[in-house]
Amino acid sequence: MKNKIFISYAYQDNNEINKLKSALTEKGIISDEADLMVDSQMPLVPGSSLRGAIRSAMESASTVVVYWTKNSASSDFVNYEMGMADALDKKVVVVTPKGEKLDLPSNIADIQVLELDIEG
Length: 120
Prior knowledge:
The protein is an alpha/beta fold. The protein has one domain: Rossmann fold (3-Layer(aba) Sandwich), CATH 3.40.50. It contains four helices and five strands. Strands 2-1-3-4-5 form a five-stranded parallel beta sheet, covered by helices on one side.
């Protein structure tokens, strides 16, 4: 059975996500066989709830990767997804761009952060 990995990030960081996936694979955080779910690739059906789709995807995920940048700090959806991961008691991996010193919200402040050299 494939591991399902939910990747949470701000849409402004979309250009960095493929490099993030590659870096996480190289580090052994995710495998090539992992089923990756990213919120920008969620199927949108007119009249459906995006929050409901996110919750459903996150419920089936074994791990939530949060790409924490200055953009995600101000993203309502990234903060919603982090709260959802916490509420669902999911394993959370926090990734930040190497060299960026960012304040983490209290609900992930105690998680060991992985710094990766990802250029946009």
